[in-house]
Automatic annotation (TrEMBL):
Domain of life of the native organism: Bacteria
Domain HTH marR-type: start-end pairs: 10-145
SMART domains in alphabetical order: HTH_MARR (SM00347)
Protein name (Swiss-Prot/TrEMBL): DNA-binding transcriptional regulator, MarR family
PROSITE patterns referenced in this protein's UniProt entry, alphabetically: HTH_MARR_2
Amino acid sequence: MQVDSGMDEKKFIFGSIFLLSNRLQVLGDQMLAEEDMTLRQWFLTVMILQFDEKPGPTLGDVAKLMGSSHQNVKQLALKLQQKEFLILEKDEVDARMLRLRLTDKSKDYWEEKKAEQNQFLQKLYKNASDEEIKKTVSLFKKLFQAVEEF
C-alpha cells in the first residue's frame, strides 16, 4: 500500500502541535520563573480576560474555554489567588458557582509585561509571512471546529 504524502503532512502537523506545545510551555515557564509564575497560570489570566470583567467568568466558563477540568483550573486559580493576582468569589445569585476576577495587581503586572510579550511574539513569528499566519489561523479554526464535532 502506498502512503499518501498528504497523510504524511497531516501526521507531521499533528505531532508538531504536541512538540511545539511542550517547547513553548518550557520556554514560557523559563521566562516567567523570576515572577514565580507558570505559562499555564499566564494562560488562565488570558482566558479570564476573554470575558466581561463584571461579574467575571465562572470557574466552569473558564474551564470550558481552556478545554480543561474544573479541578485543574481551580488549582491554577488558587495559586494565583495566593499571589494576589486573582480573587475567587462565590456568585451572588448561586453560591455554588465560583467567579474569577483579576486583581489590580494582576492587571498592572501584565500591563508592565506587554512590551516584553510583544517582543517575544515578534521573535517567535520572525520567519513567518502575514499570509502564512493568516492560513495558519484559518487551519486552527478548522481544527478546533473538527474537535468540537467529535
